[in-house]
Amino acid sequence: MFAAKLGCNVSAFDISIEGKKEALRLAQEEGVEIKYQTTSSCDLPFREEAFDAIVLI
Question: For the Methyltransferase type domain, which residue ranges apply (predicted)?
Fold first, then answer.
């Protein structure tokens, strides 16, 4: 949420559907948008260098 509040485009990934629901609820509560996919980190559909930064939590 911190990066989204700063105006960054935020993409989130998790294998947990419950984690996705909670993250989207918090984003709505904070008034920010995040793009969230429920998937394995091994199967992400992005080209190389698609992101400026990646943070694992």
Answer: 3-56
Q: What's residue 25's pLDDT?
A: 96
Q: Which helix (H) or strand (E) holds 27?
A: helix 17-30
| Three-state DSSP class for residue 2 | helix
Q: In the structure encoding, which two tokens stand for residue 52, read together?
A: 């400026």
Mention every residue, 6+ apart, whose C-beta is less than 8 A from residue 10: 3, 4, 32, 33, 34, 35
pLDDT digits (tens, 9 = 90+) for 9-52: 999 988 999 999 999 999 999 999 999 989 887 888 888 888 88
